[in-house]
Each structure stands twice: as structure tokens, then as C-alpha cells.
Design brief:
The complex is a heterodimer.
Chain A lengths: L6 E8 L2 H8 L5 H7 L1 E4 L1 H6 L7 E6 L2 E9 L8 E5 L2 H4 L15 E9 L8 H9 L8
Parallel strand pairs in A: 1-5, 2-4
Antiparallel strand pairs in A: 1-6, 3-4, 3-6
Helix pairs in contact in A: 1-2
Chain B lengths: L1 E6 L11 E6 L2 E6 L3 H9 L9 E4 L2 E4 L2 H14 L3 E5 L5 H14 L2 E4 L6 H10 L6 H7 L2 E5 L3 H4 L3 H5 L12 H23 L25 E6 L4 H5 L2 E4 L5 H12 L8 E2 L2 E2 H13 L2 E6 L1 H4 L5 H14 L4 E6 L6 H12 L5 E2 L6 E2 L6 H6 L5 E5 L3 H4 L2 H7 L3 E6 L4 H4 L3 E4 L9 E4 L5 E4 L12 H18 L6
Parallel strand pairs in B: 6-7, 6-17, 8-9, 8-13, 9-10, 13-14, 17-18, 18-19
Antiparallel strand pairs in B: 1-2, 2-3, 4-5, 4-19, 7-15, 11-12, 15-16, 20-21
Helix pairs in contact in B: 2-19, 3-14, 3-19, 4-13, 10-11, 10-13
Chain lengths: 140, 483
């Protein structure tokens, strides 16, 4: 079996303009998923993972792991810093520790990233059902 | 076709109040002056929405009447031992006031989205104090703008245009022309770099300048912009000084700048990945301005240090005020999150995470904040108003939320609605319902009702009033008087 490259990175989640516009179009929309179920990597990190942009990757933290689409960051250089837009995909792996001030750690979370071209990205309905086991009614 | 002028935009904390809408047969067809977020909301709000309340029966959400949904919601809240009432930052102050009344009635915890946004900033402000002002003052007087851990280009797209670098102020000029020149130069540089990459074998006469060379901003006249971020954001591309801080190391950078402002020396070459020489230049720019302002974002509150990062930012500004005039302001996200803090404060004495379970308001973020309550698995019901915690909270917190009885009041059919037990579709505040909202600098502005909501869709205020009345009725029947 081919050995897959894994990188240790720092995960930062945040606002992107596409995510801001996408949420106004509805979180069940495909546009929203296209814009939010992604992560931005430094071009050098992409090279090191031996993948091109638009390849699926698995991002894992001690709190969970999620498959999203890798995009080449145009906001570099930010080696070993992976940026994900706010949303259910990023929150699936966010650190819930509030350090006694009520605020989870959404930025600066240690994470690992590896290519996962053989794995599919879950849509919002699948994600909610898998995570919380509650039947959803996305088609209403 | 009619035109509505001076509409307040209900998207982000900028609350731009110069939006013009063209309305044709009860539908918004054109948005003038709005940013892309504003346009997306005004033009796209009507698509994909619920027109009837829903209740969960046999595991499925089914349509119902407003009366039945109200009764069900009231029963859940009246029977709950420790309910949480969360959201509030995307609705009007009038609705928030009713929410606080409802929280007191049911002895629950009321919290707003500050808790996962600028909650640590509130804690920092309570510890250190804040020197601040309105955005109008900044527009006319500020000659040094700092965005720290904040990317207004994406999150508050018109902030730079309306309040900081680009407006023509009474005492400070617009930097728009300078920006155009800079953008053209940057585009040309990228083209040259790309040409050099494409033809590496040809000997190039031109050598691209080193990317890390600091720009000669120190001699620049007029307004100057400093951006501190972990990435070179679009906002950073406009900056005269860009400081790329390593993730989780903002606190060190603040303390280093405080040291330099006090004319003390630093014995290392780099702090948080930034050369001290560059920081000295930035400190000099800060001291030599006439009116400086720091806008800080979630880069401080969500990364390591949280409230302590904000402490350090506020302390830096306090120190700078011994040398010149400096103010500081959090970049509030949702359009009325400042209003939520304000209404909570005037009603209960505390801005967020207010616990009424003892019969009187109690505030202890870390204990009475919603994420901590969910992680401790203590709540047994939730009312979510104008927010989507299932999409916005970390998975571990949501796991408990979805196990409890869940009531949602929201114009969108969002991720939380999908797993809820009772769903009330509501009118969009600022489009289909009026009210009051607070801008990020605590200036209250009126929200306009520009179109009618669909038949049967009520504003948050009316839905909450119905629930409150019903809760009182249920509690009376069960012999539970208001505490």
C-alpha cells in the first residue's frame, strides 16, 4: 500500500467572503457546501503532501476528523497553517475547551492533514446525521 | 417600482445605513451601496424558507399551526428544569427584551452569540476598561488604523470604506487614490513575477524586489494602516505595515509593543515570528500618530490567551494614551450583537451568560456560558432565536444540545431547525420587520420594514410574546408562579 504523507499543522478557522455570502443563500445549498467544506493550504504544503488543489484531504484534531476539499491559499505564505471557513465542517473538529471563559478554541488548534482522494465529502444532512444520530429534514 | 432610501443593512456590525433598495411588487430587485453580503441577503433572503411552523411528531417534522407550536414550545419551557435561551444577535432589541423576560419567567440561562465571539473581549474590558469612541470620530480624525486579528475585507466589507481608510473625513483625507496606485503596482509586480516563472531560462533584466522588504510607510503622509494577522489577508494587502504573527502568539506581540512604547529594549531578534526592528518601526508609527485606533477581531478572542489577549490589547492602548490619542474597538460580527449585550446589561446588569435559575441574575462566564453548560450536559431544553448553534458550536457541545428539547425561531431553515422539535419561521428583521439595532460603536439605529412578510409569518417580537403569555398560562395551571 502506498504510504500517504501526513503533515502536522495549526488549524485556524475564520470568515471568508464566500462563506458570508453562501450562508445567506441557505446552508443546505450546494453553493454553501462548495464554499465552506474546504481548507486553504500554503502552496508549499500542497507540494509536500504531493497533491494538487481540489483534492480531498482529511483534517484531524484530537476532537474529530473531517474530509474537505483542499484549495491553494492565495493568502500565503503561511506554511503549516491550514485555514478553514466557519461552518459545520470546521466545527466537527474544533476544540471545545473554553479555558473557563466560555469561548471554545476555534483558532490555533493543532491538527494533522493527509490526502484522502478516496474519501467523499459529507453534505450537511449526512454530517448532522452521522454526528448526532438525529434524523434531519433537509428536504422540507 | 418604488425606492426605499436610507435603509439600515441587517448583516454585520457596521450597520451601514445608506442602503437604497428598489422594490417591485413587494420584492427587492436592486440593492445600491450594499456590499456583497448585503446584496446576498437583500436579494436572496426570500428563497428556500419555511412558511408554516413545524413540530416533531414520530421523529419527523410536520407542519402545524402557530397556536399548536406555541403551546408545545410553552410546555417545553415551563416543564424544563434548566432551559437555555440562546442566539439574539440577529434580531431587534425589542425581541431581545422579551427574551430576557422569558428567561426570568422560566428560570433559565440567557446567553447571546457574544459567548462564542467577543465574550472574552467583554471580560477583558471588565478587567482593564476601554478607551473608545464612535465610528464617526474615527472617520473624521483617525490617522492611524490598526486591524488586529480581523479581516474586514471579508467580514465587514464596507468598514474600511465608510469608517477608516477611504472616507473623506473632516480632518483626514481619503486614502483611496493611494490604494489604487498600490493595487496597480501589486498587479504589475505579480505579472512580472509570473512572467519570470514562466520563462526561467531566459535571462531577465528585471529583478523582482524582495517580498519581505518593508514598505517606506514611515515617510508616508496621511492615514496609515497596520494589519496584524496570521495570514496575508485581503485587508493586509492594503496595509502600510503588515505584521504576520505566528498563531497563538498575539499576547507576546502586544507585550513586545508595550515594551517598545515604554522606550525599553528587547533582547531577542524576533517576537512571535516578527523581527524586532520591524516592531520598532511600528511602535514609532503608533507613538507619532495624532489619533490612532485599534480594531480587533476574533483572532484575539478565539486563539490561545483569549480574554488575556484582549487585556493586553486594551493595556497597549492605555499605554499609548500616555504618548498620544488612541482608542480601541472590537469588530462586532452580527448586526445586533452589540444590542444583545446592551439590552442584557440594562435589564440584568450583565452583558451575556446570565443565569436566572436562582431567581435573580447571576453571571459567571465559564460556568453560566452556554458552551460550558452544554459540555457539562446540564440543560434540558433550549430556545434558539435567530442563530444556528448546531452549525456554529464545536461538535461536543452540539451533541448534548440535540438530545434536549429544542425550539427554534429563525427566518432561515438552518442546521439547528433541521434537528429541532418545534420550529417557528419568523420575519426577517430589518427587511420584513422593523426594530432597533446597535452598531458596533454602541450607536442605536432604526431597522426598517421595507416589504411585507409572507402571509402568516410573524416577527420575532410577536412570536416571543405569544410564547411568554402561554408559558405564564401553563405555569399558572401547574401552580408554578413567576419566581
Amino acid at each position: 500500500m502506498e504510504h500517504k504523507m501526513k503533515l502536522s499543522v495549526t488549524l485556524v478557522t475564520g470568515r471568508t467572503i464566500e462563506q458570508g455570502v453562501g450562508k445567506e443563500h441557505g446552508k443546505n445549498s450546494e453553493d454553501y457546501m462548495e464554499d465552506v467544506a474546504v481548507c486553504y493550504l500554503d502552496p508549499e504544503d500542497l507540494k509536500q503532501l504531493k497533491i494538487k488543489q481540489d483534492t480531498n484531504v482529511q483534517v484531524s484534531t484530537p476532537y474529530g476528523s473531517i474530509v474537505v476539499r483542499a484549495l491553494k491559499s492565495r493568502r500565503g505564505p503561511h506554511r503549516r497553517v491550514v485555514f478553514m471557513p466557519y461552518g459545520p465542517w470546521a466545527n466537527a473538529i474544533a476544540d471545545s475547551e473554553t479555558d473557563s471563559v466560555g469561548m471554545p478554541s476555534f483558532k490555533g488548534v493543532p491538527a494533522e492533514i493527509e490526502p484522502a482522494s478516496d474519501k467523499a465529502i459529507m453534505n450537511l444532512k449526512q454530517l448532522l446525521e452521522k454526528q448526532f444520530g438525529k434524523e434531519t429534514d433537509a428536504d422540507l | 417600482m418604488r425606492t426605499c432610501k436610507a435603509v439600515t443593512c441587517p448583516v454585520c456590525g457596521c450597520l451601514c445605513d445608506d442602503i437604497e433598495l428598489q422594490i417591485d411588487h413587494g420584492k427587492i430587485v436592486k440593492v445600491k451601496n450594499g456590499c456583497s453580503l448585503s446584496e446576498a441577503k437583500f436579494l436572496g433572503y426570500a428563497g428556500h424558507r419555511l412558511l408554516k411552523p413545524l413540530v416533531r411528531k414520530n421523529g419527523r417534522l410536520v407542519e402545524t399551526t402557530i397556536e399548536e407550536a406555541t403551546k408545545k414550545a410553552a410546555e417545553i419551557l415551563a416543564d424544563a428544569y434548566y432551559p437555555i435561551l440562546y442566539g439574539w444577535s440577529s434580531t431587534s432589541c425589542e425581541a431581545i427584551r422579551l427574551g430576557v423576560e422569558l428567561a426570568e419567567e422560566v428560570g433559565g440561562v440567557i446567553d447571546n452569540t457574544s459567548t462564542v465571539c467577543h465574550g472574552p473581549s467583554v471580560l477583558g474590558i471588565q478587567d482593564v476598561g476601554i478607551s473608545t469612541c464612535t465610528l464617526g470620530q474615527i472617520r473624521h480624525r483617525a490617522d492611524l488604523i490598526v486591524y488586529w486579528g480581523s479581516n474586514p475585507w471579508s467580514a465587514h466589507p464596507r468598514h474600511i470604506e465608510r469608517y477608516t481608510m477611504f472616507p473623506e473625513g473632516r480632518f483626514e483625507k481619503s486614502e483611496w487614490r493611494d490604494y489604487i496606485v498600490k493595487t496597480k503596482a501589486s498587479t504589475a509586480k505579480k505579472k512580472v513575477e509570473s512572467a519570470l516563472r514562466i520563462a526561467p531560462r531566459q535571462k531577465a533584466d528585471f529583478t523582482a524586489p524582495a517580498r519581505s522588504a518593508p514598505c517606506p510607510a514611515i515617510q508616508k503622509e496621511g492615514r496609515r494602516l497596520i494589519v496584524v494577522d496570521v495570514r496575508r489577508t485581503r485587508t493586509a494587502e492594503l496595509a502600510d505595515y503588515f505584521i504576520q504573527v505566528e498563531p497563538n502568539r498575539d499576547y507576546e506581540l502586544f507585550q513586545a509593543l508595550r515594551t517598545l512604547i515604554h522606550d525599553q529594549e528587547i533582547d531577542v531578534d524576533k517576537v512571535a515570528g516578527v523581527p524586532v526592528e520591524y516592531l520598532e518601526e511600528v511602535a514609532e508609527a503608533m507613538i507619532s500618530c495624532n489619533f490612532g485606533v485599534v480594531f480587533f477581531g476574533l483572532g484575539l478572542t478565539m486563539s490561545s490567551g483569549k480574554a488575556r489577549n484582549v487585556d493586553a490589547a486594551l493595556s497597549l492602548v492605555r499605554d499609548l494614551n500616555t504618548r498620544t490619542k488612541f482608542v480601541i474597538m472590537p469588530m462586532r460580527g452580527h448586526f445586533n450583537v452589540t444590542g444583545a449585550d446592551t439590552v442584557f446589561s440594562w435589564q440584568t446588569g450583565y452583558p451575556y451568560a446570565v443565569d436566572f435559575s436562582q431567581g435573580y441574575p447571576r453571571y459567571n462566564p465559564g460556568e453560566t456560558s452556554i458552551v460550558d453548560i452544554l459540555l457539562r450536559r446540564e440543560s434540558d431544553a433550549a430556545l434558539i432565536v435567530a442563530s444556528d448553534p448546531v452549525a456554529n458550536f464545536p461538535r461536543l457541545a452540539v451533541e448534548h444540545l440535540v438530545k434536549t428539547s429544542l425550539i427554534v425561531i429563525d427566518p432561515h431553515f438552518n442546521a439547528t431547525s433541521q434537528v429541532a422539535d418545534v420550529v417557528f419561521p419568523s420575519a426577517f428583521v430589518g427587511i420584513e420587520a422593523g426594530g432597533t439595532a446597535y452598531r458596533m460603536d454602541h450607536v442605536p439605529l432604526p431597522l426598517k420594514k421595507v416589504v411585507k412578510p409572507p402571509n402568516g409569518i410573524l416577527p420575532d417580537v410577536q412570536i416571543l410574546r405569544k410564547i411568554l403569555t402561554e408559558v405564564r398560562k401553563v405555569r399558572k395551571e401547574r401552580g408554578k408562579e413567576a419566581r
